[in-house]
Specification:
Elements: H1 4-16, H2 46-78, E1 89-90, E2 93-94, E3 103-105, E4 125-127, E5 131-134, H3 140-161, E6 202-208, E7 214-221, H4 222-236, H5 241-245, H6 262-268, E8 273-282, H7 293-296, E9 307-313, H8 319-330, E10 334-342, E11 345-352, E12 363-368, E13 379-387, E14 390-398, H9 406-419, E15 441-447, H10 456-464, H11 483-490, E16 530-536, H12 543-551, E17 563-570, E18 582-589, H13 606-620, H14 626-630
Length: 631
């Protein structure tokens, strides 16, 4: 077995180059003489013993000073070129901590203060029984080697079990935006040593100065850069090339790479929901007011809806001007997907501009309930299209007027439902003669001309003594006399349609230009003639809902309603017509679709869009910039 003292002295010689003889403690006799001498020296007198002890103390002091000088010289040579990471100072000289933690004989003890454990406050050594004792410190190099070994094993684990990160083309391109999803795996740039930290590698970003030279900026962590790149790729929807090479050969099915499939739907609409605005207004043939914000963008709206549809009756004769007015009010975020008209009826469908690539080609149909008249004022027009896998039908109509003609209005509704031939290009399973049965969601608005079966005086007194909007938790005082409410309850017309609760005052009939109800000789009673109804097909019970039902202890859970009315109100500030505009806001669930449908492929009314943006800039005035006006 190897002698521990030899191994100890060898380590010390290797680290500090100190003579081994200097480290040996002076020999002592185990049993001291009771007279102050040393055992075994009884033949010497007391004076000789005293002189011998003084000589030993002087030799020991010389050894201490010599060891101290050699240690200081060694440390100054080793650590002279290190300006940042230094060892503790001993008597003005920086010393390097010893590698071993054993007791060393003859070591030096400084004149600095000693803490409670016996070690100097600014040193790694202590003098105990004429011996220099060092703290058990391991060289920093050995610590780095241990960390490197650990991180190397972690790196091998990541390479084996975690997906690889994409590669960056080179550090010379780091001046570009961090939206790049690639991660740097090239050589280290100048001034960067990855060996300092394997846990979180870092590298410097290279930017270009005005003179063309490259400048090294602050180091950026690869973990941070990877996180930023992945987030940017998610926001910008960057498409990997290998994904683009894949084709969807699942004809007529849901493919993972399809344009209308679930993955694309989750990117465009993460919640798989959209908001739909439906507005109706009998314009009485008058030009619209210059300010249309109260109708197009009511103050109660938090965000601009995704789909905005306007149906008008007795419309303004200049169709293009009306559409441009709507486009100018909405701004550049929406485009006119499609519009159609019949006589005095007009229907325009605007949609968020980034959604036009996921719509089917829009279709329209119309029906006049008075085919013998030259000027068609009564009837209906409709626009249909699908967004991803959800089909929509929007209808606006102007039904037969007068208080007593309820049956005629019911007959008009039945003719319209069975005469509109939609859709013509979309595939529909179990096509029905009732056009409202061929779509997932149907929105019907217009001047339906249904009245309140109450005397005018009674209604006027109720309006004058009632504060609007009505409380949502209280029933409407006269809706039980409303003709449309009775028709919906009996199922005589609009089978399956619903209407949100009415809390606003009657929308008909006003003296144009005022807020007064009809004061003409006819003295028409106030009524809710302008209405918005909606209908939807319930969502199928999916595996998710069955699993939720089983988790709930067998309790049946139904899918959420695909359409929900969020707001229903009128616009009292517009006074150009004898009718008040009415609008409703809906939330609709969108399902994935298939790529076999006839796509609109970005089709929209370009002329209306450009003219609307031009007028938007012109109306902003010379004091404001064009960019601010558009945005």
């Amino acid at each position: 077995m190897r002698n521990p003292s030899n191994r100890l002295s060898g380590q010390f010689n290797l680290c500090c180059s100190v003579d081994e003889n200097l480290l040996k403690s002076p020999k002592k006799n185990r049993y001291p003489d009771p007279h102050g001498g040393v055992g075994g020296s009884s033949s010497l007198d007391y004076g000789i013993q005293q002189k011998h002890q003084q000589q030993q103390q002087q030799d020991q002091q010389k050894r201490r000073q010599q060891l101290k000088l050699e240690l200081n010289a060694k440390n100054s040579t080793t650590n002279g070129d290190r300006s940042e990471k230094r060892s503790p100072v001993i008597n003005g000289t920086r010393s390097r901590p010893l590698e071993f933690g054993q007791e060393v004989a003859g070591a030096v003890a400084s004149s600095e203060e000693v803490d409670s454990s016996g070690y100097h406050s600014n040193s790694q050594t202590a003098l105990v029984d004429n011996r220099v004792v060092t703290k058990p410190v391991v060289f920093r190099e050995y610590q780095n080697h241990t960390q490197r070994a650990i991180m190397s094993s972690k790196s091998r684990f990541k390479e084996r079990f975690l997906p690889p990160l994409p590669k960056l083309e080179g550090y010379e391109k780091m001046e570009q935006h961090y939206s790049s999803p690639n991660i740097a795996e090239t050589d280290d740039p100048p001034g960067v040593d990855r060996r300092d930290s394997r846990k979180s590698m870092s590298f410097d970003t290279v930017t270009t100065a005005n003179d063309g030279d490259s400048v090294i900026s602050n180091p950026v962590s690869t973990d941070s850069l990877a996180r930023q790149a992945l987030m940017a790729a998610h926001v910008l929807h960057l498409i990997p090339a290998d994904k683009a090479r894949q084709r969807n050969f699942l004809h007529g099915r849901l493919g993972t790479t399809s344009l209308l499939g679930p993955s694309e739907l989750d990117k465009v609409l993460p919640t798989r929901e959209i908001t739909i605005f439906v507005g109706t207004w009998n314009m009485n043939g008058q030009s619209p007011p210059k300010q249309m914000n109260d109708f197009v963008l009511p103050t109660s709206l938090e965000h601009v809806p995704d789909i905005i549809v306007f149906g008008t009756q007795e419309s303004y004769s200049e169709r293009f001007e009306w559409e441009v007015t709507l486009q100018e009010t909405l701004g550049p975020s929406h485009i006119l997907l499609h519009s159609t008209s019949l006589g005095t009826l007009h229907l325009a469908a605007f949609i968020r501009r980034d959604l036009i690539w996921y719509c089917s080609e829009p279709e329209d149909a119309n029906l006049s309930v008075r085919p013998g008249t030259a000027f068609r004022t009564k009837g209906a027009i409709a626009i249909s299209f699908s967004l991803f896998g959800t089909s929509f039908l929007f209808v606006t109509s102007h039904l037969t007027a007068h208080q007593q003609k309820v049956k005629e209005r019911v007959s008009d509704v039945k003719k319209i439902i069975h005469s509109l031939d939609l859709p013509r290009n979309l595939t529909v399973k179990h096509r029905n003669k009732d056009v409202t049965q061929n779509f997932d969601s149907v929105f019907w608005c217009g001047d339906l001309n249904f009245r309140l079966s109450e005397p005018r005086d009674k209604l006027m007194h109720w309006i004058e003594t009632t504060q609007f909007p009505l409380p949502a938790h209280l029933p409407h005082g006269f809706m039980h006399t409303d003709q449309l409410t009775s028709v919906l309850a009996d199922g005589a017309a609009f089978k399956g349609f619903r209407e949100a609760k009415i809390t606003f005052p009657p929308t008909y009939k006003y003296d144009p230009g005022t807020q007064r109800f009809d004061t003409s000789s006819k003295q028409r009673a106030p009524a809710y003639t302008d209405r918005i109804l909606y209908k939807f097909k319930p969502l199928p019970v999916t595996t998710v809902h069955r699993r939720i039902s089983n988790a709930a202890g067998g309790k049946i859970t139904h899918p959420p309603s695909p359409v929900k009315c969020l707001a229903y109100d009128s616009v009292q500030s517009i006074i150009t017509s004898d009718h008040k505009p009415v609008w409703a806001l809906f939330r609709s669930i969108i399902r994935p679709g298939v790529d076999t449908i006839p796509l609109a492929a970005g089709l929209f009314n370009r002329e209306v869009y450009l003219e609307g943006m031009k007028r938007r800039l012109d109306s902003s005035g010379s004091s404001s910039s064009a960019v601010c006006s558009i945005q």
